[in-house]
Write a structure and sequence with these properties.
mainly beta, 60s Ribosomal Protein L30, Chain: A, 7-stranded antiparallel β-sheet, two-stranded antiparallel ribbon, 65% strand
């Protein structure tokens, strides 16, 4: 992973075999980012996607293990238990131009992934919501 900064925005380039969630979590820890948002695009070798069911309060998963274009990557950053908490969604396409999307559990970068990350000055925390079954922003 390589990065630079322009004004308040970090420009991050993930490299082959970097993991998106793992890399961004480490980046947030190293740069003391407690809240923010990001967007990105690129390509990955694999992606583990998830879809949440309010009825069952569980995620179903789809593991894609093939070269994929990252059409759109977006997410936000908050904290839970004093650790970075990333909420990330992704849309990817395969070589047949089929698109898959959902909550991103993890993805392994192929050639590259370019991310623009903007920190916020406020700290945002998450807390469990029993009714919904998710860790929601504590606003």
């Amino acid at each position: 992973m390589k990065s630079t900064k322009s004004d308040k925005t970090f420009i991050i380039r993930l490299e082959k075999e970097d993991k998106i969630i793992e890399s961004l979590t480490t980046f947030c820890k190293d740069n003391n980012i407690k809240a923010g948002y990001f967007t990105g695009l690129g390509a990955c070798e694999s992606a583990l996607l998830a879809h949440y069911s309010l009825e069952t309060k569980k995620y179903s998963e789809k593991n894609l293990k093939e070269p994929l274009e990252i059409i759109h990557l977006n997410g936000n950053i908050s904290e839970m238990n004093n650790e970075p908490y990333l909420h990330v969604h992704i849309a990817v396409s395969n070589d047949k131009m089929q698109v898959f999307g959902g909550h991103l559990k993890e993805a392994v970068i192929g050639p590259t992934c370019e991310i623009f990350l903007t920190p916020l000055e406020k700290t945002l925390n998450r807390k469990p919501d029993e009714e919904i079954g998710l860790n929601l922003l504590d606003i």
